[in-house]
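Incident log, structure service

09:12 report received: a user says their structure output differs between two submissions of the same chain.
09:20 pulled the input from the user's history:
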Amino acid sequence: MIFTKMNGLGNDYIYIDERYEKINDPHDIAVRLSDRRFGVGGDGIVLLNESKIADISMRIFNSDGTEAEICGNALRCVGKYAIEHHLATGNKVSIETLIGVREVTVTKKNGVVTQASVAIENIMSGLHDYPFCREIEVHNKVIVGYCVDVGNPHFVTFVQDFSEEMILLGNKISRRDTFFTEGINVEFVKYREREKELIVRVVERGSGETFSCGTGAAAVTFVAHKLGLIDEKVDIKLRGGTFTCSFRNENTIVVDGDVKENFVGMIKME
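09:34 re-ran on a clean worker, output below:
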């Protein structure tokens, strides 16, 4: 099976073009290929295919085999793939996802896509039965966070500093059927008031800690703006690099950052 490994600020996925490769059990394939010792290694797989309503379609499966609604970094990398494989022309790519069509705008250098932006639309405070601000208790610690729907669920909480214990708590919070029925992506945010700077570490539902998260960056921007901490444009610093996030309107945030192809490979599936 041929695949392409790409990453958006270190959030790495294995991209498989189903026009050429038949995937019968994507849940199993995601678990096997994502393993960083016995597989290819990644935060999950992304399946690409033809679309009747867009330039290309995508489905995302986390490293534990669960399917995700959307992923900002995967969208941005699919935009790169579509342009470089001549599935779209110009600098815009329409992509069909589980929650509708999204558009990616790319920047090229010497014919290679080096940067991509995507508008995260219809951002909402709260999640179904969960209010915007929610207090939960994890391992005898009370954590106050903010629930945001950006097409997938996020829990944004502010911290004084980062720690490995914090990541363990994030793994607990993110799991399905614990505090949130469908699980949730967790962002730990350190706010530096003088610099108006947001530094973030992310624990993704189904993948664990990741180096970056596009929808997570949008969720953090939305919450920070709602709390009056930032203006309408901000840099979000993550372990894998920096996103620039800006409001298009009160419920739409454009997330912009680097995208890279790691390599193209082939693996024998037994």
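09:41 both user submissions now match this output. Likely a transient worker issue. Closing.
09:42 reviewer note: The chain has two domains: 2-119+258-266, 124-256. The mean pLDDT is 96.
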